[in-house]
## 1
Amino acid sequence: MVAADEKPSRRGPVRLAKFLAHAGVSSRRGADAVIAAGRVTRHGEILTDPALDVGEGEGVELDGRALAGPEPRVLYALHKPLGVISSARDTHGRRTVLELIPDVGLRLYPVGRLDSDSTGLILLTNDGELANRMTHPRFEVPKRYVAVLGGPAVGDRAIRRLREGVVLEDGRTAPARVRRIGPRTLELTIHEGRNRQVRRMCEAVGHPVVSLCRTAFGPLELGDLEPGRWRRLGDDEAERLRAAVL
């Protein structure tokens, strides 16, 4: 991983959406929306084609501000606490994950959303390509959770249903890996990223979630990182993440 004070090397032309992602504007998918909104220009001309080839030093601007090209890539692991929003900003003034780490002078954004009432591992980065691959369904990156459930002790039938896939209003889920930790506590690993998926799966088998914590995202483990605490990933960890989604 490039050090924060190291200047990135110049690269040849790339597609506009990728250029924006490498410049730390957003993820690759988010870059399409930024372009469609007419916020990207070059020499005063609005650029509308995400596939347009652009390079450094070509005068590409976002909202009138020049983009020099790739920023040094940084990756942070954060233990999101309860009540914190896993987005870059919140229109209701609620605290966001970006407020929990120091200002490093780079445009960071979260990778892998967690609900306000869930805790656990979330990534913060300016690496749009990695963010896209970590969250895109095609790459099937595993996400592991520990869920404390309400109701009676979780029976074998409920666990079997979770392992086989549960029918939700937006279709049947893919099979989950499930391990019983306690009478009302399960460890679940899923490869999808549907909205509130683990909560809906558990509720569908008769056990509403009381608390939910994500303990792993791909090869990265939460470990003993305390709620609200963060750490910058080392080179080996960053490379393992990238290798997992090549």
## 2
Amino acid sequence: MADVGRAVRRAALLAGACTAGHEVGVHGFVHRPLPLRGPASTRSDLTTAAELIADVTGTWPRFFRPPYGVLSGPALLATHHLGLTPVLWGAWGREWDRGATGDSVLQNLLRGLEGGVTVLLHDSDGVSPSLAAPALAALPLLLDECAGRGLRVGPVGEHGLLAP
């Protein structure tokens, strides 16, 4: 899911990712917890993000991952209005933990790894790009583990989620 602030600054990269077949979803225009926001603010934020993604990529986004994994009533109403499907995760790497390594990220992921689960990894938090290192180090280990378990890796759109 795209951080839209970075998407504005790096529109060509976002468009290229979409052209290469990657899914681009809404995470919000600003990264604030939804329960602290009212209905109008939530709807405006998600609408702005979805429209910007559509303008840059030429494709309306299908999915919405809420900041911090916390939904709210207004967010559910806004996603329904915008035709977005909320997506949460079942396995997360916690690559932002101090001292995280590829192995520690993998161990965190294994706690929730099963068929059909969405895996959450970050390439950075927008402040410390070094978060990418443990996540990237975990990826080949994760892919080997999935192969060993007979799990197929694919995009969220192949999880069988239905649009609202």
## 3
Amino acid sequence: MWKQGLSAPVFSLALQRNTGGYIAFGGLPPAGTVGSFATTALQEFNGLAGSAFTGQSFYTITPDALIFPGAATRQTNQFIIDSGTTLNHLPTNTARAINSLFSPRATQNEGVWIVACNARAPQFGVRIGGQAFLINPVDMIFKDEATGLCVSAIQDGGAAPGPFVLGDQFLNNVVAVFDVGAAQMRFATHSY
């Protein structure tokens, strides 16, 4: 569309919790936002050399920080913004720390963090472009309808360099603008 002059080199995404969502080409989706948009640079993923996880095949950013009790004030890991991934995949130690904050605690079973469906979720968010984007507690627990099990929205993404992923459980809470023309991403809090 962009090459044919039908659209600006930008698309945006607003997932609607449990009901699909919107994608818009050349502008913003018909979804409400709270506050202003935060901006950050799109980056080439500096992942594992020679693997499928290198280069510009992903929409990659480096958030300022992850927000949870006991978190460092800054972080330097890259994260892929991916609507094709349901959960968030964070560094091992970070995933372990966040999952220990559920009440009752999440437990790891065959590599997956399982949580009680009625657990109290910890505060978690991502700081991007100086703005905090907190994940609604509803999005911190994902129920697998096929098995009836509930899993934490925070899963183990392994050691650096990852890839680490901010998936749907993060994207439910923001309107994300993929501005390829300006080589940047913009995020605003999604209002429901």
## 4
Amino acid sequence: MARPIYLDYQATTPIDPAVAAAMQPFLAERFGNPHSPHRYGWEADAAIDAARAQIGGLLGAAPETIVFTSGATEASNLALKGVLTAPGQRRRRVVTVATEHSCVLDTAEYLRELGAELALLGVDGDGLVRLDEVEAAIGEDAAIVSVMAVNNEIGVIQPIAAIAELARRAGAVMHCDAAQAFGKIPLDVEALGVDLLSLSGHKIYGPKGIGALYVRPGTRVAPQMHGGGQEGNGLRSGTLPTMLCVGLGKAADVAGARMAADAAHARTLWDRLLGGIDVPYRINGSATDRWHGNLNLAFPGVDGARLLSDLRELAVSAGAACASAKAKPSHVLAALGLPDALAKASLRIGWGRFTTEAEIDRAAAMIVAAVKAQGVRAA
């Protein structure tokens, strides 16, 4: 039986062959603990240092500012909790956005339960924050502002540099969840003005289980795991997985070399898919301020559960992969003001480096057929 066409690149990406090849030696013969004081350890440590430099190079950041984590979820937890619990931290307000990933929203809510003040910003109909509302929420005593660069459900790009400038003026730390942006759009930590930035390996054709947090020198962040203090001068403890670190580094290297080509390919597929859909639809989120490898479409008058059931030959989703077990509509689409029925009739479709035009054409035809099967007429 043929496998479904994979169009869920926001959930995870296939590993690039070049990444798999770079990781292979560290699965077998180069198995040393990177923290050991002998040749096996030095060999692994050198490979990790090279990966750190590759990641930093894609961010315009010094290698020593890159702290490896198990993924963007851990990195974002470390950022928010670390800032709020840092020695000498007197500020207690966390400012974030209603459309953030759950790793930020749930962490912010946890901090609120511990006594922090939480300012949760709304978005406009395009899914973008309003800078005047950001500024008002930051005030004069916010501890940290956390806004994602590219939204994982609707693909919109937030004005991170402008938000970071507002945070800097107020003396707040700026954190950016860049899991869906890293390797896809240009990110320079100096130009953006961010203090902390989270990223993940499996969103850029690298392995799962590895990510990193960029930490601007001088940013006070308290460790959230204690032990050997192997990473970031004691900021994170635990033996580093050399193979995964190497994979993330290589994925960053490949992404940097292919960024323009990948972006052009994504835009071509965006135009092709929309050109093949002749039933009524709504694009959820801005059609311009976005990453064009992420398309979230709502189909008025359609039963969403039936639509997904009828599209079993497509690997697509109705929202974030981490929320797939929840029956309620996407919190992101709710923040855009979509009624429940329309939110439930939405599909998140994502493509990338290995998606072909032929697959997009087939996907468009399948979606149209599934929608028309529910009695919806052509537009």
